[in-house]
Amino acid sequence: METTAVSAVYTGVRRPRPSSLVLGLVRRHRSSYLVMLLATLAASTLSSGWIQAAFSIGHRDGAPPAGQLNAYERLIQAGGEDAARQMAVMAAVICAFISIILVISSVGFLIETRRREYAMFRLAGASPRRVRRLALGEFMVPLAVADLAGSLSGCLLSGAFVKVILDSGIYGVRLAGRPNLAGTLIAFVSLMAACLVGVWFAARRIGSVSPIEALNPSGRTAAKKKIGPVRILLALAGLTGGMVLVLAPVDGMDVETRILTSTACLLTAVAALAPLLVTAVGSVIGLPLQLATRGSGLLARQRARRESRASGAIALPVILMLVIMSGILTLARAGWTSQTVSQYAPVQAEIIVTADADAAGALDRTLVTSPDVDSAVTYRSEDWQVSGPGVDRNSTTILTMVPLRGQTPGARPADTIMPTFIKGSPGDLGPGRVAVTRQWAQNNLEGKEPLGQTLILTGKDDKTQRFTVAAVVDMGPTGQSSQLVMGPESGLQIEPPQAKGLTTLVRLKAGSDPGRASRDLDGRLRQDPTASGARARTRREHMDYDARRSAHVQQGLPRMTAGAAVLASIFLVQSCAIVASERRLQNGRLRDVGVSRLPLAMASIWESAIDVLAATVLAALVMLAVICGTYRQMDTALAGIRIPLPYGYFFGMALVGLAAAMLTSGLYTWISSQPNRSGL
């Protein structure tokens, strides 16, 4: 029987010591404890590793001395450290958040499986308070050991996690991960507090149920999780907020904030109603399995419908894994796409050509000989260190503006694809003169009049040259995000620290077809061996290309969130193993009436599949609502481009979760259903 660990509790002869009761429960459920401790160990290890990586980056561990770097390299190192610090903190927060939520959920679920033992304690005379203390004693020491071991093991991963962040598109930065006591303590305390909170509240729920109800052989009252008023209020608030953000326009809210807020609201609603939603969706999904597999499918569907706590414990890690990781990737890519749309919306160029920095000559020859080109302006992009009186040293991208020469100006002059001059004119950009944007002047000159200010450009090998601000411009018509602009005769005498590339805006003659003209230009540039990396696209094609490029540029985000996905997978496996372990008594009774091991294992496999598929459907509905709201906010009629949504990540993670759940449940049930283990 399940109550063998408490058969001698509170007899008239003597009271057993609390330690003996705790040890009896631990021995009785040692297989469940082993799975839970391994999951807690993994959660604390990953959380500790990311937290210590954030501390290492914040302390600049492994950074080279400033004397070994030139001025530009020092700026790149400082900027890269800031970016790495933000990524590390975000990864640590995500990983710790997932760990805390899943630890609380899994510990609470494991305590729910002890309801019969705790009911026997209550019938033997123990008070609800004493039951809570026994639950704390039962879970505290094993979880503390696993948490401490994992927090210390995270020291071994900090260096690898720092390397993952630096390999995610942060170039020219040298850092190293080192063990940090503060990171270890934060990981240990946060997860230990989560474990104790989960134990305490789950034990309080157990104590609120009468012993007779908890001892109900069907377990229906205890296993069927009720939707209380707090959950209903959370669900209503989350659903209302999410639908408002999805359907109604919200002035002053950018795409990133809208996606983040709507995802959080809808995820809250789904999590609050998970026992009800997973059971309802799982019942529908399980119907074809029941009809196709008969006995095992029927048993799986009935268990999924009746055991809402078990279904919720399996579904919650899947929902968190899919929604959080897909939501973060959607947020980043939608934000990039929104910026691309707003950046190129004012541009009047029909064709945009991109090329490497050394392709300027080939690009000019091709454009001059093209019968469709009316005018063009090439912007050469270079990174410089900029300073000056009252201007802090900063790394700034400077554009050199070169209008196409050798052609008679047509009906579409080049000034329509040049910056708008707020102060000064293009003729003011002579040798030693530079134009700045109004935003740059406001951020760097502290309210001073920009015209006449002196800027010092530091190039390669720390050589410097002085320039005078001669104009203030608006870069809107160019689609470029740079803050400083030079003319073709700038008199620049020093080499830039880093050359980035060329962007050419092309106006076509009246009546020219942009699609045909872009294909002609692109074909001629491809045939020219000196046109390194040159590609010609229509404006809409360039916007679509730039939006799709976000998947490559933002490659660090999947790596950052991979730890959270691994954690969710670990707790998914744990939940499946605990569910299979706690159903050994039911399986033993079925074995006693002649049911073989294979149908029992298949029923466990189908039950896990139903729960994971139900969670996938709920996560897909959340993401679908978020994506619909995103497209409503973006001006798709103007853009005509698509957000590169992370379909591959979503369905790939769903398949991995499905396979892990089915494999764990099937193997554990097959092994635990051996004849000599039935009902033991």
From TrEMBL:
Belongs to the ABC-4 integral membrane protein family. The lineage of its organism: Bacteria, Bacillati, Actinomycetota, Actinomycetes, Bifidobacteriales. This is ABC transporter permease. Keywords: Cell membrane, Membrane, Transmembrane, Transmembrane helix. Residues 90-211 form the ABC3 transporter permease C-terminal domain. It is found in: Cell membrane. Residues 318-522 form the MacB-like periplasmic core domain. PANTHER family: BLL1001 PROTEIN, MEMBRANE COMPONENT OF PREDICTED ABC SUPERFAMILY METABOLITE UPTAKE TRANSPORTER.
